């Protein structure tokens, strides 16, 4: 096809992305394929992946650590926005895509490639996230998606790879499709495609079964500075360390599982299981701290845009003008969102049981029912008369 001379391929080490290497060269006339594996804390051995890419015909095999940027530039803004897709999913997988797209585009510039490629199929969300993000970062670069076009079944894909020396994958004992990074895991396919089937315990790695969790509650205090988490139990931690430690603490109590029917960007519904212990609890704690430090009107207005923000991330519009405008609003609201939130973890539950902030606008002297009360009760009567006036006038008219 002669679509490109040099291509940077997003590489995971799986069947599809490995077969993309000979396929791009043989079928589409690409001269050089350079693979890029992004280390976002998926925990798998990236050394063997690097070798596998070279064995599959890659000119060069890059592995880049993006963990710090992943947390600081993608997870933390989502926490400040309390971003939950369909009010449930904290976007652990979706947040990785704009970063990988950025790494692809930067590698293309560095190595003089005229195209980037990914192994996404035509059914998922990730193709949308990659294609749109890449176009936003460099509208002139070509995006190739061989797996979207080759029309091969999994068996045919494996057979194609074997022709070019790509070893047959060890027979998958697991029928599940799993994506993992520092922020969480997404699990789909196999028996999970029946919405009535309960997820088997074996699919969970980051969260314990309730029966296995401690019989005593554990408390964790999360410190925020301008909406960004910075401490655990009073200890200042780096971004990656904070997420890693909190995943461990929270997951140990069975907190962080989600089982949902989700509306994909391409219009189909899919059953998704997620584990995202730290991210879920951080959003919960952050939202609570906002209730202590933001005025009612700001909190309520911000709630309205949080759903839009989550949708933008899910739909691949991280680099869109609207996202940038919403960030400006959100960052302005976070100036005073500093303080500590106390969370009680027990048997699959994360309960917020305390919060404090130097910027708190909770006034005990106004809230109390004791003799310390400074609220002017007599002022309420006139306020209620004015407040209820439109309703009273309407009622009188309705009654004729």
Automatic annotation (TrEMBL):
UniProt cross-references to Pfam families, sorted A to Z: Arginosuc_syn_C, Arginosuc_synth
The keyword ATP-binding is assigned to this record: yes
Sites where the protein binds L-citrulline: 89, 125, 129, 177, 186, 262, 274
The protein's annotated pathway: Amino-acid biosynthesis; L-arginine biosynthesis; L-arginine from L-ornithine and carbamoyl phosphate: step 2/3
Transmembrane portions of the chain: none
Leader sequence segment: none
The reaction(s) this protein catalyses: L-citrulline + L-aspartate + ATP = 2-(N(omega)-L-arginino)succinate + AMP + diphosphate + H(+)
Localization terms from the record: Cytoplasm
Gene3D superfamilies: Argininosuccinate synthetase, chain A, domain 2, HUPs, Single helix bin
InterPro entries per record: Arginosuc_syn_C (IPR048268), Arginosuc_syn_N (IPR048267), Arginosuc_synth (IPR001518), Arginosuc_synth_CS (IPR018223), Arginosuc_synth_type_1_subfam (IPR023434), AS_cat/multimer_dom_body (IPR024074), Rossmann-like_a/b/a_fold (IPR014729)
Binding positions (L-aspartate): 121, 125-126
Main location: cytoplasm
HAMAP family: Arg_succ_synth_type1
NCBIfam families associated with the record: argG (TIGR00032), PRK00509.1 (NF001770)
Protein name: Argininosuccinate synthase
Lineage summary: Bacteria, Bacillati, Cyanobacteriota, Cyanophyceae, Spirulinales
Gene that this polypeptide is encoded by: argG
């Amino acid at each position: 096809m002669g679509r490109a001379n040099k291509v940077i391929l997003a590489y995971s080490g799986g069947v599809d992305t490995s077969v993309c290497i000979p396929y791009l060269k043989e079928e589409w006339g690409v001269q050089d394929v350079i693979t890029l594996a992004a280390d976002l804390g998926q925990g798998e051995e990236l050394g063997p992946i690097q070798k596998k890419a070279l064995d599959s015909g890659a000119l060069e095999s890059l592995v880049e650590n993006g963990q710090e940027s992943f947390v600081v530039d993608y997870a933390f803004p989502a926490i400040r926005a309390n971003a939950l897709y369909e009010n449930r999913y904290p976007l652990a997988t979706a947040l990785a895509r704009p970063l990988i797209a950025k790494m692809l585009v930067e590698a293309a510039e560095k190595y003089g490639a005229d195209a980037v490629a990914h192994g996404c199929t035509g059914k998922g969300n990730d193709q949308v996230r990659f294609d749109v993000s890449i176009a936003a970062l460099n509208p002139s670069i070509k995006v190739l998606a061989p797996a979207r076009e080759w029309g091969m079944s999994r068996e045919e894909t494996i057979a194609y790879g074997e022709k070019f020396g790509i070893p047959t994958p060890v027979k998958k004992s697991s029928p599940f499709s799993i994506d993992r990074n520092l922020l969480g895991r997404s699990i789909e396919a196999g028996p999970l495609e029946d919405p009535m089937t309960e997820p088997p315990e074996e699919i969970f790695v980051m969260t314990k079964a309730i029966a296995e969790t401690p019989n005593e509650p554990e408390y964790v205090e999360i410190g925020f500075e301008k909406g960004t988490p910075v401490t655990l139990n009073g200890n200042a931690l780096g971004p990656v360390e904070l997420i890693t430690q909190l995943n461990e603490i929270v997951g140990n109590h069975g907190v962080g599982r989600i089982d949902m029917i989700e509306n994909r960007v391409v219009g189909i519904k899919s059953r998704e299981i997620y584990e995202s212990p730290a991210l879920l609890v951080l959003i919960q704690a952050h939202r609570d701290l906002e209730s202590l430090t933001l005025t009612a009107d700001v909190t309520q207005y911000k709630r309205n845009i949080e759903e839009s923000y989550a949708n933008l991330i899910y739909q691949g519009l991280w680099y869109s003008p609207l996202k940038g405008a919403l960030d400006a609003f959100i960052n302005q609201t976070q100036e005073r969102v500093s303080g500590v939130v106390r969370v009680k973890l027990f048997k699959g539950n994360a309960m917020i049981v305390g919060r404090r902030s130097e910027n708190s606008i909770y006034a005990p002297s106004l809230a109390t029912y004791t003799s310390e009360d400074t609220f002017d009760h007599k002022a309420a009567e006139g306020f209620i008369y004015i407040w209820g006036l439109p309703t009273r006038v309407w009622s009188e008219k309705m009654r004729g």
